[in-house]
Amino acid sequence: MTDRPVIDSLGTRCPQPIIDTARFLRDQPIGTEAILLADDPATAPDISAWARMTHNHSEQLEPMKFLVRKESDY
Amino acid sequence: MAIAPIFEQAWPGYSKLSPEARGLAILRNEALATIAGHLGIEPEWLHVLGETNLGFYLGIQGLLSPTQLLQVSAVDRQEVLAIADSHSHSEILSVSHEGQILHNLNQEAVLAWQLGNGETGVVQQSAPTAKSIFVDATATGARLALPTNWSTALWDSRNWAGPEGIGFFAVHPNSDWRNPLPHNDNRTVPGESSTGLLIASALAIDSWVADEKIQADMILQVHRRIRGYISERISDVDFATPENPTMPHLLSMSFLYVDGEQLLNALLAKGFAVDSGSACNAANLEPSHVLAAMGKLTQGNIRLTIHHTVTPEEVDGLLVAIEECVAALRD
């Protein structure tokens, strides 16, 4: 695994993981990738919905690990 | 309409042979005929349940043989999903982004068909086919007719503003249904139900149907007004309810970056009682499986029910409250 920045939202409750992701990527250039760590059960559906709504990319790598990529200036 | 005298009259049992009991039996039959008429079925096919949720088990298990495939959908109620979970040969059908069941036709299966969804207001647009079909009409009530090839069906009295604690279960005479509960008689439902609740439910459905004729347009206008206002004034909203609403009294929407429980409480503090499908909601630890199945945002979700009696002032107040609360929570 290359050195993608990690957004550690473990132990936080929805919607915090999504807020953390949005905040982090907002200041980054388009194309930036990061790893989101989150154990809240709403994370999987919501990171996917977030990506759709904000025109970014997300994919689930493991139960609590998600890859996110900035693809728009949302 | 006075409920108390109904209950006083209806207190004695109705299955005995005394004149009072016979009188009650007649009242019950009239109530049942009224309800059956509004639901579009024959009164003889309709049975009263003192425990509505028992109807899911009766309706599905009564059609299902041990090795037969049971098909349910990802948006079905938890009661149905639990039955699928406990059956050895089950399939969960996925849904489209619009909540339409991606029906994978199997002529030998028992299909549990959710005619309408009580969270999102989605109504199934296609006709189901299977060997036997259980129709969950608990969210559609008297609004929609059953699909033509139904085998069993279930309604909830609350759907037409009737009393809680009573449900209605129908068995089509052409179906393969047999009672799945242990029984030594040929009853369809296990016990007796409250005559008072039954009569109250019949009065309610009559009233509801009459109101609906008058109010359907108004409710649609209110729905469109709410959706239009929110789409225009608040960013990052995901609507779960279809744009052309098939059950306009329901509107489900999710706000990005908002805690659903906090939104619920903030609106409550301003005098507006709504529901939420979010996991960030004291009643649930998991997000709404319906929203997740549709690929919709589950956080920051509120579900509105637009009643016959809503006033323009209430709508104005609600819209302002939602706008203010969402802005405050996103800060």
Tell me what the structure shows.
The complex is a heterodimer of chains A (74) and B (331). Helix content of chain A is 31%, strand content 26%. Chain A is α+β, with helices and mostly antiparallel strands and 74 residues long. In chain A, helix 1 links the parallel strand 1 and strand 2. Chain A is globular and about 30 Å long. The N and C termini of chain A lie far apart (27 Å). Chain B is α/β, with parallel strands linked by helices and 331 residues long. Helices cover 35% and strands 16% of the residues of chain B. Chain B is built from eight helices and ten strands. In chain B, the strands form two sheets. In chain B, strands 1-7-6-5-4-2-3 form a seven-stranded mixed beta sheet, covered by helices on one side. In chain B, helix 4 links the parallel strand 2 and strand 3. The longest helix of chain B is centred in the middle third of the chain and has 39 residues. Chain B is globular and about 65 Å long. The model of chain B has no long low-confidence stretch (mean pLDDT 93).
